[in-house]
Amino acid sequence: MWTKDPLRTLRRLLGKGRLLTAPEELLLYSFDATTLRGAPLAAVMVESIEDIRRTVNFARERGIPITPRGSGTGLSGGSVPVEGGIVMSFERMNSIMKIDVENRFAVVQPGVVTSMLQEAAARHSLFYPPDPSSCNVSSIGGNVAENAGGLRCFKYGVTGHYVLGIEFMDCKGDLYRTGALSDDDSEPDLTPLLVGSEGSLGIFTRIALRLIKAPRKTATLSAYFDDTLKAFNGIESIIESGYVPSVLEYIDRKALSASSEHIGITCPEHTEALVLLEVDGDDAEVTKLASELQELLNGAAFQVNMATDDKGRGLLWQLRRGISPSLIRLSSGKIHEDVAVPRGSLYELVSAIREIESEYKLEIPMYGHAGDGNLHVVILYNAIDSISEKSATEASKDIFRATIGLGGTITGEHGIGSAKREYLPWQQSEAVISLAARVKRTLDPEGIFNPGKIFSN
Ligand SMILES: Cc1cc2nc3c(=O)[nH]c(=O)nc-3n(C[C@H](O)[C@H](O)[C@H](O)COP(=O)(O)OP(=O)(O)OC[C@H]3O[C@@H](n4cnc5c(N)ncnc54)[C@H](O)[C@@H]3O)c2cc1C
After folding, report:
1. Distance 139 CA to ligand 1 centre (A)
2. 85 and 129 together in one domain
3. Mean pLDDT, the chain, as a whole number?
4. Are 207 and 251 in a shared domain?
5. 138 in contact with ligand 1, CB cutoff 6 A
6. Which of these, 83, 231, 283, 354, is most buried using a 10 Å CB contact count?
7. Contact 56 CB / ligand 1 (< 6 Å)
8. Going by C-beta distance under 8 Å and a sequence separation of 6 or more, which residues neighbour residue 102?
9. Same structural domain, 31 and 126
10. CATH of the domain at 407
11. Is 414 in the pocket of ligand 1 (CB under 6 A)?
């Protein structure tokens, strides 16, 4: 055990203004977007590699945990300091260090907000496709540590597909460079090991990311269905026909009605589901694809809207964008799961969740990245009623069982963190879990990086 006394040493090492210890300041670094809470003894606002090294050395010598933190939008407790210690915040390491237009890549500090990189790339007619819905707040470091997915995954893939190299610090304070950031091409590329490591294997200090040519045009379509099965059949027929939309989102009636009430837009009567699509590419290609898709959907949906200009597209996106804020207001408690199944089993999963919902007498709005079989399941409950809370937890376990039974995973994109750690053995063998624990012990033998998360120590 350690006390607050050594913090004086850390303050001296870091200089003024970088170490927060006041309870009201620490409160801000005690949670993420889950209901999990931690009790940090200090938060360090790192500004340089030297700040990171001094903090790591200080913590290792005293056996103090370090929890790296980007923007705290995580949905699995990754940046919650569940075992106390030091929260290492990257909000001040937020510079886009380089955009190489000719070779189409960027080098950034981990604290860069995702949408800032997207905008900077766009100024050079380049495109950074990973697009988590939290992109206006989330950081690149957090995206890489969670291997974040998002709205454009169906066509463009997840964050990991764009990571060219990582500079990271290990628990001894040594700095390593992988992939494109390495000077030595002959080494094994450890980049994939670090992507999705949830702050548990090393601390990212710099990240190189692939950029691609920006599409010239984008069209958005919204298709309203009066039946859930028709919506999933519509999604399947799009994919069966060989189309690869950049966005392919499913939204159920409950999520739609919360959002429409919140933003003051009326949904057409009899709506059971909305499918939101985007296609992008060259002008002629997009015009052709969008009208073909509209025709294809016209058979199954009772209303299809299309827009290619920014204003019209913005209107079609309103209902999707309104979901998260509307659900927060809807109930005092919410468990947000991101289960994923092979896409062909999505309807079966949705039907199983409807049964779980009625068994536990809960409200469970659903929406998600249907193209990837990724479903956001929001279990609403009354946070001041322990019976309601217990029902929500039990329902969430049943949802995991149903998902695994369909060959799926308990997390499609939000990560394991501390929220889902106890359920990992439900889907992974003991052998795999213990192998992962050995990897963790090799890179972090003292177990100071983000203990209590994904890897067993
Ligand atoms: C409204 C909303 C919508 C969302 N939509 C999506 C979505 O579409 N797709 C999706 O995948 N997720 C989504 N998320 C979840 C979340 O935004 C992502 O997981 C995101 O990647 C977290 O980024 P962050 O900067 O907030 O990281 P944090 O929450 O601060 O941390 C996440 C993890 O990254 C680690 N970490 C942070 N910085 C570093 C570093 N420098 N070195 C090593 N480890 C580090 C932390 O220790 C932690 O384990 C959403 C969340 C919200 C609230």
Report:
1. 7
2. no
3. 95
4. no
5. yes
6. 231
7. no
8. none
9. no
10. 3.30.70.2740
11. yes
CA of 35 to the centre of ligand 1 (A): 15
Here the tokens at position 300 are 């199954």
Statement: the pTM of the whole predicted model exceeds 0.90: yes
Same domain? 196 vs 228? no
- Residue 450 maps to a domain: no
The ligand 1 atom nearest the CA atom of 453: 49
Number of domains in the chain: 4
Q: What is the pLDDT of residues 110-168, one digit of tens each?
A: 999 999 999 999 999 999 999 999 999 999 999 999 999 999 999 999 999 999 999 99
CA of 286 to the centre of ligand 1 (A): 32
Do residues 19 and 102 share a domain? no
Supply the range of the domain harboring residue 111. Answer: 96-213
pLDDT tens for each residue of 276-324: 999 999 999 999 999 999 999 998 999 999 999 999 999 999 999 999 9
* Encoded tokens for 279: 């296609």
Helix (H) and strand (E) counts in the chain: 16, 18
- Residue of 37, 73, 80, 167 best suited for mutating to test ligand 1, as the one with most atoms within 8 Å of CB: 73
Q: Does ligand 1 lie within 6 Å of residue 33's CB atom? A: yes
What is the DSSP track for 340-388? Answer: E--GGGHHHHHHHHHHHHHHTT-B--EEEEGGGTEEEEEEEE-TT-HHH
Cα dihedral 228, 233, 238, 244, rounded to 10, equals 70
